[in-house]
Amino acid sequence: ERVLELARRLSRGEALGMEEEEQEEGCQRHREPLEVFCKEDGALLCAICRESRAHRAHTVLPLPEAVREYEEQIQARLQTLKDDRDKLLELREAEMRRNW
């Protein structure tokens, strides 16, 4: 659920966990544009935050790449859920026919 919300916000160009006016300013600490996504923390980072000790060893992706990656993951999981739903509906229908 959290990943889906992150992907939705990223695809709309929204900053995660920030108000719209803060998004325009960029990083709250450094007032730099948010350029990368930290996979470990699920947060948008500016270039300065990215080089800090807190994130230096983390895996980061450029925003467009992060959006694309999470969209692909969500679509794959959605397809799996649709397939499972179809199987359940088939089983339900078969059981109803058997009961008739």
State the main characteristics.
single chain; 100 residues; mainly alpha; Double Stranded RNA Binding Domain; three-stranded antiparallel β-sheet; 4 helices; 9% strand; rod-shaped; zinc ion binding; zinc-finger; TRI26 protein; Znf_B-box
User: What's the SSE pattern?
Assistant: HHEEHEH
Average pLDDT taken over every residue: 83
Can you summarize the main beta sheet?
3 strands, antiparallel
Give the terminus-to-terminus CA distance.
39 Å
**CATH level-3 fold name:** Double Stranded RNA Binding Domain
Helix count equals 4
The first-level CATH class is given as: Alpha Beta
Structural class: mainly alpha
Task: Name the CATH superfamily classification.
Answer: Classic Zinc Finger
Shape descriptor reads rod-shaped
Radius of gyration: 20 Å
| Share in helix | 55-70%
Detail the poorly predicted runs. 18-23
Strand content: 5-15%
Please tell me the total number of domains: 1
Number of strands: 3
Question: Strands of the biggest beta sheet: in what spatial order?
Answer: 2-1-3
CATH architecture: 2-Layer Sandwich
Domain B box-type: 22-63
Pfam families: zf-B_box (PF00643)
InterPro entries: TRIM/RBCC, Znf_B-box
Coiled coil: 71-98
